[in-house]
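Tokens in:
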């Protein structure tokens, strides 16, 4: 079994750093953008309950498995899976699981960085007062003009990728570790400040709480259940290679179970607090929670533009979104940078530069999908580049990666090895194993089949 001395790329300073890094990976646009509008679309409290159940029964066991695989392998996801497959006396083709996770992260970051660029743009616009007094219609026009301009989108996309490259190039300790120790506490402080603002500056906080926590199961459909399951994957960064490579940096004496539970709880609490920030502001300005994907980038800026202190707190809010996007993006690029350093024995600076440039280039497809490539002649299966990447990664690659991770950890690895790696009591280990062997495969296969059926009909 690998130990800390054989870790190729470094080890976190302690358990708390892994928690901050994994939480930073999880707390991104999935929490601050997607969770809010999906919760709004599917009726609030009942969806939230199903989401939390999915986190507990699917997300946490898969995250534990992925972390354990990473710590056992102590290398990039590809090299770790090849090593673990060899140790388990099975085909080396299981290394493709590592490749698939890294490819998923690569594809997600290529469009994620463009969306994060929107957050940077709105941080600037709110900060300098460009949106002061704007109505929802005016903000909508402003947003449409932004996404229709390939030059502006490219500029913000480029700036975001440069920020990521600068952090990752500095290595595990000076780059990743230092950044999460600054970003995550700052993110939490900003979130608390904005929560206070939402409670004080609006008269809709009680209504927002009712929306988030009242259980109206009449609004719950099978489509909502599948959306909650998919959101649990996206929210915890599962199947992207991120948690596996972060697990590779985890000290041997850190408990995987308690660390993953802490990350999942922190992630869920932050998602709910973000809802408590967003929904009162939206409701106070006549914007329904079901406003959809434009809730964050059209409805909220308009609300901030009409509220006392809105310029300051709107700027802080989009700074929060940008920081969250940065912390999660770092985890998406790290697995491929780690493999490049291992494979080609190059410095992290060179590896980070090359990988960032490739992701930037891929991201230009998303940039153009909102403007010059938005026509039907540029679409595939009726989807733009952005829509196709989002569908393939969220509906196919993420659940498939999570499924295979659960299968390998619970069915393929030797029981004694995974039992020692997880360091759980026998009862908890048996529960984890039952979830990974039976419950998760059934749930993910249903999600996978229904998603494909809906796409093809």
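Residues out:
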């Amino acid at each position: 079994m690998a130990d800390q001395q054989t870790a190729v790329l470094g080890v976190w300073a302690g358990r708390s750093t892994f928690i901050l890094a994994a939480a930073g990976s999880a707390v991104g646009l999935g929490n601050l953008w997607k969770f809010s509008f999906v919760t709004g679309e599917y009726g609030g409290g009942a969806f939230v309950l199903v989401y939390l159940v999915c986190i507990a029964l699917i997300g946490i066991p898969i995250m534990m498995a992925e972390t354990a695989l990473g710590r056992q392998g102590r290398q990039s996801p590809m090299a770790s899976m090849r090593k673990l497959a060899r140790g388990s006396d099975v085909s080396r083709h299981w290394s493709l699981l590592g490749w698939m996770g890294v490819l998923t992260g690569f594809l997600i970051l290529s469009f994620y960085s463009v969306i994060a660029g929107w957050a940077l743009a709105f941080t600037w616009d709110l900060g300098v007062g460009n949106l002061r007094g704007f109505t929802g219609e005016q903000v909508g026009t402003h947003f449409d003009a932004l996404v229709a301009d390939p030059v502006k989108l490219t500029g913000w996309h480029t700036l975001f990728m440069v920020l990521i490259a600068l952090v990752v190039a500095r290595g595990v300790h000076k780059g990743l570790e230092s950044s999460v120790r600054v970003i995550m506490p700052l993110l939490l402080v900003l979130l608390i400040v904005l929560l206070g603002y939402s409670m004080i500056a609006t008269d809709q906080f009680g209504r927002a709480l009712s929306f988030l926590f009242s259980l109206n199961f009449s609004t719950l459909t099978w489509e909502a259940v599948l959306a909650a399951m998919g959101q649990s994957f996206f929210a915890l960064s599962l199947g992207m290679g991120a948690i596996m490579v972060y697990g590779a940096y985890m000290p041997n004496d850190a408990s995987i179970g308690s660390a993953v539970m802490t990350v999942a709880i922190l992630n869920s609490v932050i998602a709910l607090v973000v809802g408590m920030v967003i929904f009162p502001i939206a409701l106070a300005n006549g914007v329904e929670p079901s406003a959809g994907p434009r809730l964050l980038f059209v409805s909220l800026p308009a609300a901030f533009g009409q509220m006392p202190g809105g310029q300051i707190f709107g700027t802080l809010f989009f700074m929060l979104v940008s920081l969250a996007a940065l912390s999660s993006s770092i985890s998406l690029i790290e697995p491929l940078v780690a493999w490049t350093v291992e494979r080609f024995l190059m410095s992290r600076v060179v590896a980070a530069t090359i990988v960032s440039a490739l992701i930037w280039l891929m991201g230009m497809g998303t940039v153009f999908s909102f403007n010059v490539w938005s026509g039907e002649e540029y679409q595939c299966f009726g989807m733009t580049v952005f829509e196709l990447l989002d569908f393939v990664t969220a509906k196919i690659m993420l659940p498939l990666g999570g499924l295979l991770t659960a299968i390998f950890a619970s069915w393929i690895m030797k029981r004694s090895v995974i039992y020692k790696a997880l360091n759980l009591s026998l009862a908890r280990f048996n529960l984890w194993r039952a979830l990974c062997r039976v419950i998760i495969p059934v749930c993910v296969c249903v999600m996978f089949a229904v998603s494909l059926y809906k796409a093809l009909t």
